[in-house]
Specification:
3 strands, single chain, alpha+beta, globular
C-alpha cells in the first residue's frame, strides 16, 4: 500500500487548499506537527540534536 501526502505537515490543511510555501519553509527548520497522510496532530518530541513525530495511525518519523 502506497501512501500519498495529502495534507500539510505544518498546518494540517489539505495540500490543494491554497499555497503552502510558508509552511514548507518552516518545515525546513521545525518538525512536522500534523500527519501528512491523515492530518491528525502528532506527538512531537524535540531534543537539541534531533526530533521525532508520531502519528497514532501511521507511525513515527524522525529527523535525519
Amino acid at each position: 500500500m502506497i501512501l500519498v501526502d495529502s495534507y500539510c505537515g505544518h498546518c494540517g490543511l489539505a495540500l490543494d487548499e491554497g499555497s503552502h510555501d510558508a509552511c514548507r519553509e518552516r518545515l525546513r527548520m521545525e518538525p512536522p506537527r500534523y500527519c501528512v497522510h491523515c492530518a491528525r496532530r502528532m506527538v512531537v518530541q524535540v531534543s537539541p540534536t534531533s526530533w521525532t513525530a508520531r502519528c497514532v495511525e501511521h507511525g513515527e518519523l524522525a529527523s535525519a
